[in-house]
Design brief:
Structural class: mainly alpha
Oligomer: single chain
Length: 189
């Protein structure tokens, strides 16, 4: 998977686009598979963070961004939570971007830092967006913070070991992940 820079723009390979599409679908399935409603906020707990963490670590920030953002937004629309779709797109998309960007070097401390910062940004987006726009009550929106922290922890507890297991079973994953990674030196061909 390669991206090339042509006349000031980056073009993605067909393989990267296909990989992103598959990860969008996987993220949507993980989001819809098990949903635990949160009556106070009209949101729900799910396992999207497992797929987002894996996608960001395995395939880089761009795939993490589109898988997290589009996968969760699509699941919200299909699953009856359309009011959350735009916020999910931003919160989980940026989460996947941060995880992929900081974890792209594959060092364990960078992976943990990427997951931690990405997760905190996701929780903050849901709290502020939920309180200011969807729920309209800062106190009620606070009820979702612990749930989102648990959801993020599940992303780390399953997504990071899954990344290592797939990487060990399929060593070319590193090449795939670097091909979809985000850095200026990697966009020049």
């Amino acid at each position: 998977m390669h991206r090339t820079r042509k006349a000031g723009r980056v073009s993605l390979s067909a393989g990267t686009v296909a990989l992103a599409a598959v990860m969008i679908a996987v993220t949507a399935v993980f989001t819809l598979l098990i949903r635990v409603p949160i009556p106070a906020t009209q949101g729900y707990f799910n396992f999207s963070d497992v797929a987002i963490t894996f996608a960001g670590l395995a395939f880089g920030p761009w795939v993490g961004l589109v898988a997290g953002g589009l996968g969760t937004a699509l699941a919200d629309v299909v699953g009856g939570y359309a009011q959350w779709a735009a916020l999910s797109f931003l919160a989980h998309g940026i989460e996947g971007l941060i995880i992929g960007y900081l974890g792209r070097r594959r060092a364990f401390p960078a992976i943990i830092l990427g997951w931690l910062l990405g997760s905190l940004v996701m929780v903050a987006f849901y709290y502020v967006g939920g309180a200011a726009i969807l729920i309209g009550d800062w106190g009620v929106a606070l009820a979702e913070v612990p749930v989102n922290l648990i959801q993020a922890a599940a992303g780390a507890l399953v997504g990071i070991p899954l990344f290592y297991a797939v990487r060990r079973a399929f060593p070319p994953l590193d090449r795939l992940g670097r091909g979809a990674a985000w850095s200026e030196e990697e966009t020049h061909s």
